[in-house]
Design goal:
globular, alpha+beta, two-stranded antiparallel ribbon
Length: 120
């Protein structure tokens, strides 16, 4: 099994695939925090999700994953804000208005049920 270290914890291929799949499930106009993704998956934490996104997230809509305070990823703010604006995500300055744009459990629950059904 190929694995990598992220913040002192092992991040395996299954975790990477789950993170990327969850990010792909976020529809245009919505966002999730790094912690939301970790909680949804039930493994890791915001730092591990951030590691996956920084090393493997180029092929998914990475701009839809933001910090809990609504700030986009460091070094990618300009492009992320441009993409978020184009999708109609509500912003306040350079931050997403999380109360309005954050995915709800009801919206991501069907993804989780489908992603984990083969494991049951």
């Amino acid at each position: 099994m190929d694995s990598s270290r992220a913040s002192g914890r092992i991040v395996d291929e299954e975790f990477i695939e789950l993170v990327l799949s969850a990010v792909e499930a976020i529809p245009a106009g919505r966002v999730a925090s790094y912690g939301d993704i970790a909680e949804l998956i039930g493994r890791g934490g915001p730092r591990q999700v951030g590691w996956v996104m920084s090393h493997h997230g180029a092929a998914v809509p990475w701009w839809r994953v933001v910090r809990a305070d609504g700030r986009p990823a460091d070094g990618h703010e300009t492009r992320a804000l441009r993409e978020l604006l184009a999708e109609g995500v509500p912003l306040r300055g350079e931050r997403v208005r999380m109360a309005e744009a954050r995915m709800s459990e009801d919206q991501l629950g069907p993804w989780r049920d489908a992603a984990f059904a083969p494991l049951a």
